[in-house]
Amino acid sequence: MSVQNQLSLDAGRAPVLIAGGGMVGLSAAMFLAQQEVASLAVERLTASSPLPRAAFFHMRTLEMFRSAGIEDRVREQSLKEFVPEGALIVMDTLSGKKLADIIPSLNEGVAALSPCRRLFVTQPGLEPILRDRAREAGAEVMQGTEVIGVSQDDDGVTLQVRQLESGAEGTLRGQYLIAADGAHSRVRELLGIPADGRGVFSNSITIYFTADLSPWIGDGTRSVIYVNNPVIGGFFRMDKACRTGFLVVNTVGDAKADPERASDAAADIREETLIEFVRAGVGVPDLPVRIDGVSRWRATADVARRFRERRIFIAGDAAHLMPPNGGFGGNTGIHDAHNLAWKLALVLKGVADPALLETYEMERKPASKFTVEQAFSRYVTRTAPWLQASQKTDPLVGDFNIEIGYLYDSPAVVEEPGGPRGHADPRETCGRPGSRAPHLWLKRNGADISIIDLTGCFLLLAGPNGADWAAAANDAAIAVNGLRLNAYCVGKDLLDPERRFSAAYGISDSGASLIRPDGFVAWRAGEIVDEPERVLRDVLRRVLRLVA
Predict the structure, then answer these.
(1) 383-412: per-residue pLDDT in tens?
(2) Would the pTM of this model clear 0.85, i.e. be above it?
(3) Where exactly does CATH 3.30.9.10 map onto the chain?
(4) Is the dihedral angle over the CA atoms 216, 221, 227, 229 positive or is it negative?
(5) How far apart are CA 314 and CA 368, in angstroms?
(6) In the list 98, 135, 320, 411, which could disulfide-bond 368, CB 3.0-4.6 Å?
(7) Residues paired with residue 172 on neighbouring β-strands, in sequence order
(8) Rounded CA gap, 325 and 383, in Å?
């Protein structure tokens, strides 16, 4: 490496450093750029993995992509790779009989809750979109570089890094660090942060293969097919042509007779064994199969004991690990990044007190723990029911409760007494503080617009008789360190033809709702009050931790 390149490496500086340039790290860079904050991400790989690792992205994640301007690109990529919609089912083999329905159709009931629809897209297909968008918005991504050390002081964080090709070492400096460097997080290891949970319950494998499965799933009506039979337990996900894809194998053989062996699917990964696993899953003993790759991984359900160490924040798989059942892992990590980005931005801009950053762990750790346990319950129910005898599992709740029903409880939310805590059915929360703001179609300048599309900065929505709230909001925001806030009177500035807004947000026609940049309700007033500007000013200062 030249001296000039070594100097540029040592001079690397950004307000926020990001360890890890995969899905979560790139999402963090993109969300920070949305908030006009520069970042520098460090990633070991020089390119995305060539293996077609498919991921299931939920409506809430697509809402975040929508706000970042990439929803259409992601959806186009998904359509190139997979047939949309489809069901999640359980079969004995792909060519055999159906044992159970999990989700009859991928987007059943979604339209009432979100302007976005769930989809599948491979990580090699998604990550370039995230990387390009982050770079377009000003983020820097340093690929082929690994973290070898980390330190922090009262003013910032220093990363020691090494470029893998040349071996050259240098330092990067930022005010904060997001550790999104995966399940084997080097940063979390250096910080000495342990994980709590259920530990390893399966040495699993993912088999990437080529085989013509179109005779059994070629109609595109099945998105994920779980298979349970005496040979294997796991699930298939195939591409649009049903000729390439992967088989996850969590269990092998008779679990009741030998549970220890059954949970060690990675014990034998010879090619001939992998071929037999695919054939056993399809139920065709002589099926032509080509193995394209295999990855071994440990199925765990763990959460980091801490999500923060002073100026360093843990996100994604570095903070929580869960089995893939339900597809919650990547989504949960992206939600971490989204929660943290606006808080870092307002603190860095001097609008919010640094105490606001304390709410990251307060909000994301309970949501992550809940999601991890739900993923584990799904693993046991769908693949390893014998574990119920030795492992107490949480009762299953609906997917909507997990995707958009988690409730935040922190000083960044002005709580109301009573009501649900932790999580709830999003169709029943009705704009309660701490919940994700309900989706509702309104009209602006004659065009349909979702309330979700209005988020990104602080947002005040007042009922049709609440114009005084909207009028007071701008002055209140100016008084609170010049906070950026958009305010609308629904029924005047935005039209509500079906007059659904007030009921959807649990207020009267003279009430108001304050929504945070991440789309979560921070506070609401049931009706108009005296001195609305003073009330809003006090609420904003409280949410931004400018007052205790």
Answers:
(1) 888 888 788 899 999 999 999 999 999 999
(2) yes
(3) 198-300
(4) negative
(5) 12
(6) 320
(7) 12, 159
(8) 9
**pLDDT for 6 beyond 50:** no
Phi-psi region of 283 (alpha: psi -120 to 50; beta: other; left: phi over 0): left
- Give pLDDT tens digits for 323-337: 999 999 999 999 999
Rg, Å, the chain Cα set: 24
Are residues 374 and 396 in contact, defined by beta-carbon separation less than 8 angstroms? yes
Contacts of 7 (CB under 8 A, 6+ apart): none
Residue span(s) of the chain under CATH 3.40.30.120 come to 437-543
Domain range 437-543, CATH class:
alpha beta
Place of tokens 């971490």: 336
Q: What is the pLDDT of residues 230-248, one digit of tens each?
A: 999 999 999 999 999 999 9
- CATH number given to 3-82+119-196+301-399: 3.50.50.60
11-61 per-position pLDDT tens digit: 578 999 999 999 999 999 999 999 999 999 999 988 876 777 768 999 999
Q: What would the mean pLDDT of 492-513 be, rounded to a whole number?
A: 97
Q: Give the DSSP H/E element, type plus range, for residue 317.
A: none
279 close to 289: Cβ distance less than 8 angstroms: yes
- Listed in order, the ranges of the chain carrying CATH 3.50.50.60 are 3-82+119-196+301-399
Strand order of the sheet with strand 458-462? Answer: 485-489, 458-462, 512-515, 521-525
pLDDT value, residue 548: 63
Distance CA 14, CA 37 (A): 9
Pairing label, strands 39-43, 140-143: parallel
Starting at the edge strand found earlier in the chain, the sheet holding 87-91 runs 98-103, 87-91, 222-228, 232-238, 244-252, 195-210, 290-304, 320-321
Residue type, 350: G
Give dist(CA 40, CA 177) in Å, integer. 10
CATH number of 198-300: 3.40.50.10190, 3.30.9.10, 3.40.190.10, 3.20.20.10? 3.30.9.10
Query: Do the beta carbons of residue 133 and residue 7 sit within 8 Å?
Result: no
CB 28 within 8 A of CB 181: no
Query: Would you please indicate which residues are annotated as catalytic (active-site) residues?
Result: 226
